[in-house]
Design goal:
Elements lengths: L15 H16 L14 H11 L11 E6 L2 H22 L2 H7 L10 H4 L2 E8 L1 E3 L5 E3 L3 H18 L3 E5 L5 H7 L5 E10 L15 H4 L4
Antiparallel strand pairs: 1-2, 2-6, 3-4, 5-6
Length: 221
């Protein structure tokens, strides 16, 4: 084998019953995760946010390129600029860019072009995908499975924030080129999503949703 290797970490060995119980415990933790659109402005622990991002950085990824970058936004002026740019795109989306079928699917969720949470929430985490890498001389290096890798990392990040007791919202205005401009990221990066996080407002409401059961989302062969 090429490269350096070390012994794989030892996982805590569990009986089948213990393993099922551990998985059930994590399932119950994640059952309480809901997308929140109304946040308290109260500050949250940036250390906790950074630990959650470190967790995201452990996600499996193509050829260990780790093709991601996370920008933590807390500055009120930057959040305002992001909201204004996002709402401009959202007005165009809801005003004619989106097909009616997509608007009909969104209708039960009560979403509109207005995105006040981009200013109200204490922290925005803007996730960028690194389309290609750059070596020390500035030469391009190919990254592999960028979209898949960043998607898995975002899942880790959301789970980490939930574990810390923070609510989350994934926001994907389209197009998102303004995020690279506002945050002054390099040209080899492309915004993937904004993860809004903080404590839910006391009167925050969520739609009543029915999740597909295991029998529908999984099968054995």
């Amino acid at each position: 084998m090429n490269g350096q290797f070390e012994l794989a970490p030892r996982l805590a060995e569990q009986t089948p019953e213990q393993a099922a119980a551990s998985a059930q415990q994590f399932l119950e933790v994640m059952r309480s995760r809901r997308t929140i659109r109304d946040f308290r402005p109260d500050p949250i622990s940036l250390e906790a946010v950074e630990r959650a991002i470190e967790t995201a950085g452990l996600a499996p990824n193509g050829a260990n390129r780790q093709p991601w970058h996370f920008v933590i936004v807390t500055d009120a002026g930057v959040k305002r600029a992001i909201r204004e740019a996002a709402e401009e795109e959202e007005r165009a989306f809801y005003g004619g860019r989106a097909p009616q079928e997509w608007l009909d699917a969104l209708a039960p969720l009560g979403t509109t072009w207005e995105k006040p949470f981009l200013e109200t929430a204490p922290v925005l985490i803007v996730v960028f995908q690194e389309l290609y890498g750059l070596d020390a001389e500035g030469n391009r290096e190919k990254n592999y499975y960028v979209l898949e890798s960043v998607g898995i990392a975002c899942g880790f990040l959301i789970a980490g924030l939930h574990q810390a007791g923070y609510a989350t919202l994934t926001h994907t205005p389209s197009p998102m080129g303004f995020l690279r401009e506002i945050l002054k990221r390099p040209v080899n990066e492309k915004a993937a999503m904004i993860i809004v996080t903080g404590l839910p407002a006391p009167d925050a409401m969520v739609p009543v949703l029915t999740k597909k059961p295991l029998s529908v989302i999984a099968s054995r062969v």
